[in-house]
Amino acid sequence: MTQQILAYAALDSKSPLVPFKFEQRKARADDVIIDIEYCGVCHSDLHQARNDWGGSQYPIVPGHEVVGRVKSIGSAVTKFKVGDLVGIGCMVDSCRTCSACHEGLEQYCEQGNTGTYNSLDRHDKSVTYGGYSQTIICSEAFVLKVPENLDTQAVAPLLCAGITTWSPLRHWKVGPQSKVAVVGLGGLGHMAIKLAHALGAEVTLFTRSASKEADAKVLGANHIVLSTDEKQMKAARNQFDLIIDTVPYDHDLKPYIPTLALSGTLVLVGYLGQISANSVPMIMGRKSIAGSLIGGIQETQELLNFCGEHNIVSDVEMIDMQNINDAYERMLKSDVKYRFVIDLKSLKDE
Predict the structure, then answer these.
(1) Taking 60 as the threshold, does the pLDDT of residue 350 lie above it?
(2) Spatial distance between the Cα atoms of 277 and 253, rounded to a whole number of angstroms
(3) Rounded to an integer, what distance in angstroms lies between the CA atom of residue 110 and that of residue 284?
(4) 201 Cα distance to chain centroid
(5) pTM > 0.90
(6) Superfamily (CATH) of domain 4-160+315-346
(7) Residue 47: count of CB within 10 angstroms of its CB
(8) Which tens digit of pLDDT belongs to each residue from 325-347?
(9) All structural domains of the chain with their residue ranges
(10) Beta bridge partners of 266
(11) In the CATH scheme, what is the code of domain 161-291?
(12) Cα–Cα distance between 227 and 210 in angstroms, integer?
């Protein structure tokens, strides 16, 4: 039996998000149905709502940073029980059989993972709807356990901004001997600083704005380098084992490559598009430019457990569902520290 779910949706690429009702797909034996309490607002929600990347299929109910409690479970579910505090990130399924899936890297599924929204269910071809809604349904294999000790409303962005920065930190084995730099201080950048600091690394923020120094220090940065200051950039050469570049728009990578240490890597986690770089400093120091996409389910659970142990959450600003369009406009101006989170208690029949 299907159920009418209240949500907010983009009905086309030009109009504001509006209240919307949809039929939830029929639950399967391995499904968990979750009453959503909080949902983070990601830049990609805005991009998909406005079809900035192409491929948007309307109506779209965005939201892939979902936290709530289990409402009901299917007959085959063993990992969760009713009342558990859980989360869903950017994926709700994958092929589960390819080499990437077998490695626990479902985000790189060779057949393409199933997105939490604006995607087609692999079994019944129904459209997936995201977390700007009352409830969500998902196979238990893609549901995550959220530590109860954390500030629940500030957990949601860990499921995208958090894992997007955690995955490269783990892949490049960052620890107490590491020197890590972060480019950009926004939703992704502030999580990169917090997590790298908690892993014991020496952390530097590259920024164009001297006014960000105080905030960066509070988040855990040891040093600030003004990327517009040639002297400071020259002094930073040959230092960093890993640079996490969180900037979401086209920008010049060339000034950062010389600041990498021997065999260091600059990893792009924010920008989708064409890049250009001078290969000379790369060849002369075995330096790399790489990319990274969110993280697998096992890795995301590891992140949540780590955050539970170290009491790490995102810095958030709470909003009501009815204010989502204003939040989108503010997000375009970087007018948030550092992530909006929707309180779904505000979503009621209007």
Answers:
(1) no
(2) 6
(3) 34
(4) 21
(5) yes
(6) Medium-chain alcohol dehydrogenases, catalytic domain (3.90.180.10)
(7) 15
(8) 999 999 999 999 999 999 999 99
(9) 4-160+315-346, 161-291
(10) 243, 289
(11) 3.40.50.720
(12) 10
